[in-house]
Write a structure and sequence with these properties.
It comes from Nadsonia fulvescens var. elongata DSM 6958. Residues 278-466 form the Rab-GAP TBC domain. This is TBC-domain-containing protein. Residues 609-628, 807-848, 985-1031 are annotated as: Disordered. By secondary structure, the protein is α+β, with helices and mostly antiparallel strands. It has a 7-stranded antiparallel beta sheet with strand order 4-3-2-1-7-6-5. Strands 10-14-13 form a 3-stranded antiparallel beta sheet. A two-stranded antiparallel sheet has the order 8-9. Strand 2 (104-110) and strand 3 form a beta hairpin. The longest helix is centred in the last third of the chain and has 40 residues, at 961-1000. The N terminus and C terminus are likely disordered.
């Protein structure tokens, strides 16, 4: 049977390993999304977030089960039977000892630093977590039954006998792994004794051995007493006699002598009973850190507390300022915190933690918990216990968002609704907020809610059992006071009733009972019985399941609250509404999130990269913020963010978003200047406030302000004044204008002039259609369709007389024109013009396509001409910086090329040129297209993108017409280009023939007179009038 059991366990372990591996590879980024999401919500409190929906790996479960540090992984495990034998006791053989013959079946685990055992059926029967550095000797035991067995002797005198259950190959692999880990831990053995000297249990046992040694030795020795908590100086809370503190100490001393102590203690049923009845004051701090697992953290990080304290001595931070405010409000009823000794210890622990974990720093209620710990612990013990509390036991409780506390309040309400539906309905009906009452219980672990002597009894069990203790006690409080709570209907009365109950926990729970035994039961004893008997079904698995259920809702609420607060705290922009600010906020964090997700996928090691370059050093007099900059974007992320708002950034352009592909293009230069202009603090990163301020200037509709901002991108502002820009910078400006105007030059967007031209064209065609309809009505009354020409064949002069069209061609588009004129369309929308100029098949008419192509051609030429004119005017009006010529050595006969350079200053690099802001304004205002671009086209296009989706934004007010016809238009452009090329070729050929004819018949110019006679009979056309404009 053991053989098949081993095969079964081996197969199950392999399947679990495979599932864990696959679950980790299915969606690694998906798991990281929640982690990053929590960072964005809480600013920089990622350590306070725990994703309860993620699938735990085998190592995660292993660390969580045995309270181990994050650097521990499961190396090997095997089924085994373990027995114990103690060393001879100094007080004689009659003292109780562990029976050598009792064997406990269970599983043995091996990590980098620990050998761990847990019994198979009930973990409380037998378990231990043994640091490898405490092992003194390992040897193989001989066995006639060919059982693979080891004998392990540890530092405190206990001897473990281990019989492995499994295949020989499995046993060999486990022993080989154990041997390797023992070798790697050899250098750490020297650190064990200094650590043991800080533990009071070690001191007690050594004192007993010392007394026995002194009785047989002539030279007495002394042992230094370890550092104790404040209770040793200012007395411990409660009456030690009533609490039977000496009896508890004797029971613990007996257990420690027979079952090991501190690092080597064996946890059996008696261990849990002794904790339930209450810990002795002198051992309470040590057993707290043993039960919670912080003892193992302190063992592996010896000296770190003192190192952090010394490295950050005399430094200041925002967290330290907050700590100073709360020092005198930390358990003021306890005498130690009315003296400098207690305040100084509390200050040091909280300050060191703020430097150790800057993401959390300092948060409300942390001072209450640390003040309670310091009564029974040294500073170093309290520091590591606080680390374990914030990171593992109560994640998210002590953070700015209080995410963990809010989530557990939702879980608590769910449990109340499930276990006490009548009370829940009553509270819900009267709108009593249960979280207002219960939140301080969870946040301070009941320390700030009930007398300290009773609160510490709950803390004893909390460190042993975990967070479920808080839910069990809180439910028991409501159950006991349920009848009284059903009679009240407001929050204040509920708080008053429960506060009075906590103040009377020392009174009898049954004062009127005739039974003396019942009268001796206090209210606190009743509370403990109800909590851990009636609500024993509240398990850790149930709590985790409920946390996962309510996690998204809590995150959503925190996100909404954080978003509203952050937007409210921003400096009010001039050109953005609150709705637009909300969109900027969302897009900002979407860009940051996408970049971090990409970093995670590329790295696959850590969920987030730390921005070490953000930890800027400051002088001691400056306040150093302990909150890391987790919500800022770098330059590449800024480009991605801006591409969701600006049409002049091509999302698919790799040169903008891939650092390796970036060059010296127009877009690179302009966007880089824009980023550094937004970065007012010159940190290389943009905050949300930087982005809002920069965008506010970018969408400015005031013409002069918009021009000034563009000039500012190229001219550094020194002491509030903009300097002149030189020749190279003028060229950079023109490149920037080409980059910005690209959507208008390529026909992706239409400016105001083009929109007006299209609207005029539609109006003219609608008028012509109306005339044709009137003509039809008049002729239907007087003419017979069979006797005269059909009105569908009547010819009509289209637009400017360039083409003749029949009525029939207009009737084919009648239904589309009518529907487009009736249906509502947004102002300036081009969709109306598409519908009003389509034929019966729903396709744009040839005339409309040709007219639209002409408009696009004109717009493109207009913007190209504007940028060209900009360069020409800049160099024309630029101020030359002439150097004084002392002696003219130039020759009178200069080269023509030099003369050309002198005449065109733009081509002469030897003569520097520059323009100032006034000249730049003049150049922009001299061109109608650029003036309209800065005052309307550029700002309005970005504002429109804030109000609409990025897709389909081709006009100022989101016209969608061009989306469907753009391909047809470009096809038409290509066709026209080929047609024009053929026409030009034909004319060249004709010109060549005419030239040849003229050469053969010189002096014959009478054909010109014939052309002149024809001109007399023709009207003046628009082309003729264009000659006047050219003059």
């Amino acid at each position: 049977m053991p053989f098949f059991e081993v095969l079964k366990n081996r197969a199950q372990s392999q399947i679990n390993a495979l599932l864990d591996k696959n679950s980790g590879n299915v969606n690694p980024a998906g798991q990281n999304n929640n982690h990053i999401h929590a960072q964005l919500l809480s600013g920089a409190e990622s350590s306070g977030f725990n994703n309860y929906k993620r699938t735990l790996t085998k190592d995660d479960k292993f660390r969580e089960q045995f309270n181990l540090a994050d650097d521990q992984t499961l190396i090997a495990d095997i089924n085994a039977e373990i027995g114990f034998v103690t060393a001879p006791l100094p007080d004689g053989p009659n003292k109780p000892s562990v029976d050598q013959q009792v064997l406990y079946s269970g599983k043995l685990f091996l990590s980098e630093s620990y050998l761990i055992f847990i019994s198979a059926n009930e973990p409380r029967v037998c378990s231990f977590t043994l640091p490898l550095l405490t092992i003194k000797r390992v040897e193989r035991l001989p066995s006639k039954a060919y059982v693979f067995a080891l004998s392990i002797q540890i530092y405190h005198g206990l001897t473990y006998s281990i019989q492995f259950i499994g295949l020989k190959s499995t046993c060999d692999r486990f022993c080989a792994a154990l041997k390797n880990q023992l070798k790697s831990n050899l250098p750490l053995i020297k650190t064990m004794k200094p650590f043991l000297n800080t533990l009071y249990s070690e001191y007690l046992i050594n004192m007993i051995e010392l007394k026995h040694h002194d009785s047989t030795s002539a030279q007495p020795t002394t042992i230094e007493t370890p550092v104790a908590g404040l209770g040793q100086i200012f007395k411990y809370p409660g009456d030690a006699r009533k609490l039977r503190d000496k009896s508890k100490m004797r029971l613990w001393l007996e257990y420690l002598q027979t079952h090991g102590r501190n690092l080597t203690i064996i946890k059996q049923a008696t261990f849990y009973k002794l904790i339930r009845v209450g810990l002795p004051n002198r051992l309470r701090g040590e057993l707290w850190e043993l039960s919670s697992g912080s003892m193992y953290l302190r063992l592996s990080n010896q000296g770190e507390y003192d190192r952090i304290l010394q490295e950050n001595k005399d430094k200041h931070s925002y967290a330290i300022e907050e700590i100073e405010k709360d020092l005198n409000r930390s358990l003021p009823e306890y005498p130690a915190y009315q003296s400098s000794e207690g305040i100084e210890r509390l200050r040091r622990v909280l300050t060191v933690y703020s430097w150790k974990n800057p993401d959390v720093g300092y948060c409300q209620a942390m001072n209450i918990v640390v003040a309670a710990l310091l009564i029974y612990m040294s500073e170093e013990q309290a520091f590591w216990c606080l680390n374990n509390l914030c990171d593992r036991l109560l994640p998210g409780y002590y953070s700015r968002t209080m995410y963990g506390t809010l989530l557990d309040q939702k879980v608590f309400e769910s449990l109340v609704e499930k276990t006490m539906p009548i009370l829940w309905n009553h509270l819900d009906k009267n709108d009593v907020q249960l979280s207002v009452v219960s939140l301080p219980w969870f946040l301070s672990i009941f320390v700030n809610s009930m007398p300290l002597v009773y609160a510490f009894r709950i803390v004893d069990i909390f460190f042993l059992e975990g967070p479920k203790t808080l839910f069990q006690v809180a439910l028991a409080v409501l159950r006991i006071n349920g009848e009284e709570l059903l009679e009240i209907s407001d929050d204040g009365a509920v708080i008053s009733v429960l506060k009075n109950y906590f103040l009377t926990l020392d009174l009898s729970a049954h004062p009127k009972s005739p039974n003396e035994s019942l009268r001796s039961i206090t209210r606190f004893q009743e509370l403990m019985v109800v909590a851990f008997k009636e609500f024993s079904g509240i398990s850790e698995e149930m709590i985790v399941e409920l946390r996962a259920k309510h996690q998204d809702k809590i995150l959503e609420g925190i996100e909404t609250f954080a978003k509203r607060n952050q937007i409210r705290s921003l400096l009010k922009p001039k050109n953005f509404t609150s709705e637009q600010l909300s969109i900027v906020y969302d897009k900002f964090y979407e860009a940051v999130l996408s970049t971090r997700e990409l970093d995670y996928q590329l790295d696959q090691k850590i969920p987030l990269k730390k921005d070490t370059h953000h930890n800027r050093e400051k002088s001691d007099s400056d306040a150093v913020s302990t909150t890391a900059h987790h919500s800022e974007m770098d330059e590449i992320t800024f480009y991605k963010f801006l591409s969701t708002l600006a049409d002049w950034i091509d999302i698919n352009d790799p040169s903008l978003f891939e650092p390796s592909a970036r060059g010296d293009s127009d877009g690179d230069d302009f966007l880089s200047r824009l980023f550094h202009n937004f970065d007012t603090e010159k940190t290389g990163y943009l905050s949300l406030q930087n982005v809002v301020d920069g965008l506010d200037k970018l969408v400015e509709t005031d013409l002069l302000s918009s021009i000034n901002h563009f000039f500012e991108l190229y001219s550094p502002c020194v002491e509030g004044k903009l300097h002149k820009v030189n020749r190279d910078t003028i060229l950079r400006m023109s490149e920037g204008l080409l980059f910005l105007t690209k959507p208008w030059r390529e026909g992706e967007k239409l400016d105001t002039i083009s929109m007006e031209q299209l609207e005029d064209l539609d109006q003219k065609r609608l008028q012509q259609l109306s005339l044709m309809e009137s003509f039809e009505e008049q002729n239907n009354d007087s003419l017979d369709n069979e006797d005269i020409i059909g009105h569908d064949d009547i010819l009509f002069d289209d637009n400017d007389g360039k083409s003749i069209k029949s009525v029939k061609s207009y009737k084919s588009t009648k239904s589309a024109q009518t529907s487009s004129s009736i249906s509502p369309q947004p102002s300036g929308s081009r969709s109306k013009q598409v519908n009003s100029n389509t034929n019966a098949d729903g396709k744009p008419s040839a005339d409309f396509k040709r007219d639209e192509e002409n408009i696009l051609h004109e717009q493109s030429a207009r913007y190209l001409s504007a940028v060209s004119s900009f360069i020409q005017r800049c160099f024309e009006y630029a101020t030359p910086e002439k150097e004084e010529v002392l002696i003219d050595l130039s020759d009178s006969n200069e080269d023509k090329e030099q003369e050309i350079c002198n005449n065109n200053v733009a081509l002469d690099p030897s003569h520097p040129l520059s323009i100032d802001l006034a000249t730049f304004r003049m150049v922009i205002l001299a061109d109608e297209t650029l003036e309209m671009f800065f005052s309307k086209s550029l700002p309005l296009s970005m504002l429109a993108n804030l109000n609409n989706s990025r897709q389909g934004l081709l006009g100022i007010d989101n016209p969608t017409r061009f989306k469907n016809t753009l391909k047809d238009v470009f096809d038409g452009l290509v066709t026209d280009g080929m047609r024009v090329a053929n026409e030009v070729k034909r004319r060249i050929d004709d010109g060549a023939k005419n030239t040849k004819g003229r050469s053969s018949s010189q002096g014959n110019n009478n054909h010109g007179d014939d052309d002149d006679e024809k001109v007399v009979d023709e009207d003046v056309s628009q082309k003729d009038r264009d000659l006047l404009e050219d003059l």
